[in-house]
Write a structure and sequence with these properties.
Elements lengths: L2 E7 L3 H15 L2 E7 L1 H9 L6 E5 H9 L9 E6 L1 E6 L10 H10 L3 E4 L3 H12 L3 H7 L1 E3 L6 H4 L5 E5 H4 L5 E6 L8 E7 L6 H11 L5 H6 L5
Parallel strand pairs: 1-2, 1-3, 6-7, 6-8
Antiparallel strand pairs: 3-10, 4-10, 5-8, 5-9
């Protein structure tokens, strides 16, 4: 039986779990998936880790194509993702309708959990710097090295968690308040490509075509992504 090794950004973890099993059932091709933030994956790929297919942010995939690690031909943009805020289940939902409301909400939080390596964390660090509140926020922030920031809501370490909405939705016991206002963010685009030295090139191409097809749209939407 063919077995594809896939490295994917955390943002697609929820969707990929159900899509991989649907693909396996339809084709008999097994998908062995490993999930990590894009920056961590880029480091691993540059260190020579082997894979057949990778799903990264568009910028990350373009870097890999530029370095000749991923073939440009057939790469596909799969989904768009917005950064959102979450609270522990049952907590009141703060106002984040516009920049002024968001600023008040962020400053009122005891601690905000955000990631160091994920695209959402990089964006959030830039956002609070631009809003002039980085020092206040970072004085009490809960910085998550890797994984899901919303876990810090459940443990009680933080009042608010910031991450891609699709990643927030991976954690039970929390509620997504909504996206950070769209005029304050450019959505991350997650894209897939086949590795130049893929051992299972044909099977990887087949998975790539499936992930880029309209069949997967409902699953993407359900996991908090826009096709």
């Amino acid at each position: 039986m063919d077995r594809i090794r896939m490295l994917s950004t955390l943002g697609l973890m929820g969707a990929m779990r159900s899509l991989s099993s649907a693909f396996e059932t339809a084709t008999g091709i097994q998908v062995e998936a490993d999930f990590a933030p894009t920056l961590a994956l880029l480091k691993r790929l540059r260190a020579g880790e082997a894979a057949d297919l990778v799903i990264l942010t568009r910028e990350g995939l373009d870097e890999m194509i530029g370095e000749g690690r991923v073939i440009a031909d057939g790469s596909a943009d799969l989904a768009r993702s917005y950064v959102g805020l979450a609270v522990r289940a049952g907590q009141p939902h703060p106002d984040i309708a516009n920049e002024a409301a968001l600023r008040r909400t962020l400053l009122a939080a005891r601690s905000i959990a955000y990631s160091r390596l994920g695209a959402s964390g990089v964006y959030f660090a830039q956002l609070i710097a631009r809003m002039g509140i980085a020092d206040e926020i970072n004085a009490n922030a809960t910085i998550v090295e890797q994984g899901f920031t919303a876990e810090r809501l459940v443990s009680g370490e933080a009042d608010l968690a910031v991450q891609q909405i699709s990643e927030l939705k991976q954690v039970g016991g929390i509620e997504v308040v909504g996206p950070i206002p769209h005029d304050l963010q450019i959505p991350a685009v997650f894209s897939a490509g086949r590795m130049a030295d893929a051992r299972q090139a044909e099977a990887a191409d087949r998975l790539l075509r499936y992930l880029a097809s309209p069949d997967v749209v409902p699953v993407l939407r359900q996991s908090g992504l826009e096709p």
